[in-house]
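Re: your question from the hallway

Yes, I did run it. Sequences:
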Amino acid sequence: DADVTQTPRNRITKTGKRIMLECSQTKGHDRMYWYRQDPGLGLRLIYYSFDVKDINKGEISDGYSVSRQAQAKFSLSLESAIPNQTALYFCATSRLSTDTQYFGPGTRLTVL
Amino acid sequence: DAKTTQPNSMESNEEEPVHLPCNHSTISGTDYIHWYRQLPSQGPEYVIHGLTSNVNNRMASLAIAEDRKSSTLILHRATLRDAAVYYCILRDRSGAGSYQLTFGKGTKLSVIP
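Structure:
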């Protein structure tokens, strides 16, 4: 059963297009995160949110924006996609009281 | 967060125990040791974490050295499904710092049938 879902799972787009990646969770967790993973590298944090009114920049937020529409939904937007944003994007959630993060299946984004 | 060092890759035969090492010589007193794994084409998955004492759960065991400068993730009986990249991560629970999980390159575990 998928507690953290991401849509779309795969997306190919062109340079300059605006793209939105969506994440939904049924775990009831307060915290949500967006990471990107490049081939052969670890994950890097883009944005994180502790609740609907709290949004924080991560390590690599330039070129990205987020929206926390509800406790269960956290969207990542690429305002004007560029090829070096080609990567695997993961959403994650966690409870307020613990560091353990639960990850979605990922979205593979290709920017041509 | 403090840095960890892991071997790039390891191999194990199916149904044998696997010991995945991690060095973290600069660990601080408030750092918890977390392990995650990432199966092919999937998101990372939490495995286990601990502070000072050895820990066991249904997936694995975590053995922590007395000086906490190293730890070992133990898979008691490797299966083909355990083939993944295993990440050892230190998390500061003192309240300082970001909430990022800093994933290094991890150890790629191959399981031989």
